[in-house]
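Appendix B, example 12.
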Amino acid sequence: MAKPSIETEVKQKVEIKTGIGVLLTVGIGAAASLGLLMAATPLLRVENPIDTGTEPVTPLISELSGWPQTLPSYTTASPLAVNLDTDAELEIVQGAKGTISAYDRSGKVLTGWPIRLAEDSFVQSAKTSTKLDSDPQAEIVFSVSRWYGTATPSVYVVNHDGTPLPGWPKQFTSDVYEAPVVADLNKDGFDEVAVIAGTALHVYDRTGAELTGWPHALEPYNMRTVGAGDLNADGSVELIAAEGDQVSAFTSAGEAFGSCWPIKFNLGTDDLGTPIYGRPFTPAIGDLDGDGSDEVVFTIDRTDAQFPRYVLYAINEDCSNVPGFPADISGAMESSSVPVMGDVDGDKKLEIVMYIGFWDAICDGDMCEASYIRIWNHDGSTFGEDSPWLTWVAPIQKPSLADINNDGKLEIFGFSKDDNLYGWDYAHKTLRGFPLVGAHGGGVTQPAFADVDANRTAEMIVSEYTYPSKLHVYKVSGSRAGQLWPMLQHDVMNSSTIPALKAAAEPIAE
């Protein structure tokens, strides 16, 4: 029987009112207020933009002693905060071109590090596990891409001292673009490693042997990260991959998770009868509707590039839409970030946070990139009256969420090409000390947050794109660490989700 497909007809919207005096107008027209004119159709017109606010809501931040550290090369990877030894303090692992390094909290390089790799290799963001061998210390898992070079695409598993585990690395003829998943897929008490190489999804046990039923062939156009979650609340982990024009879910045995998977996105035909497809992006995976099982949340990109080009989906285990979805990403003409999920307002329910980007805009007469933040509730409704937030920045990575004052509400962090690192609370008030202006030479990777020095305060860890890159650790003075974001996409399953708390955290006394 043929697999089900989701056929979506999204009607063009002429005006989108946000409820805060911001009017987004779609269509062909001349320049509008604030000098913002999109070079392509549709255009974005902004009237009476909201005041982002400057009321302090967190303490000031400062560089931790011993930081920043200059990396051996430049990086596109996000940092990892992990305990590699027996003390309470955390170490920081950072990949870069041709190398991966590990530092203690004072910025000292650990014994056995850095690991030197092929000069033209690109080390992706690292993950970690304490269940890949029989000792209690953490192992580091990372992938190596060649991009346009000659390095061999690989996945490594190394000990805390940088030495490889037996059976590793695994090498591929096709490239590896993103971070692997680390999870106990077959319930043997040890973790497995899942990674996409080229058009195949591989799963290896701790010895480096491929599990029965793998690899699994994927559709082309799948430079996406594999993710994992429990879609039916049975305690087993499923793997989710965005591939071609479909989203797939697999059991640990490599079989399709239920008869309705994969889900194909057929969007009809254009005026010439050419099929229109939706290409899905890397998903966030979490219990969006509070039913105990995980949902899959992602955007699709229409192949005909017509407005609205991007649509946000939330899918249940039975391939049905979560009530309230899909949602139009109104005004998103050129780019959108991978969604991240967490409880930003303390209601013990997940919200979806995304950056929406516009390219080739004109700001005050000059070419620029503009964007805004948009937040959705678990039921697909727009979050609050301050959404979307117009930010006038150009983010090129995923935002991070972290509760750096332990009030049960997650703050939102992200960066832009204007060299600024931004932070807001759920009411869109700029966090005190933000933005960090012009300190990161062309942008930073997805920020990580962890209690590096084990004093119950939050540190923010960011790395630069410049050559040679720098790795920064910022102390949030006077903070009390709540739920944090220690690595790319939050966790080893690449869920991009901080689970909602069962009970509210104790806020810091004013």
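The two ends are 61 Å apart (CA to CA). Residues 1-58, 504-510 have pLDDT under 50 and may be disordered.
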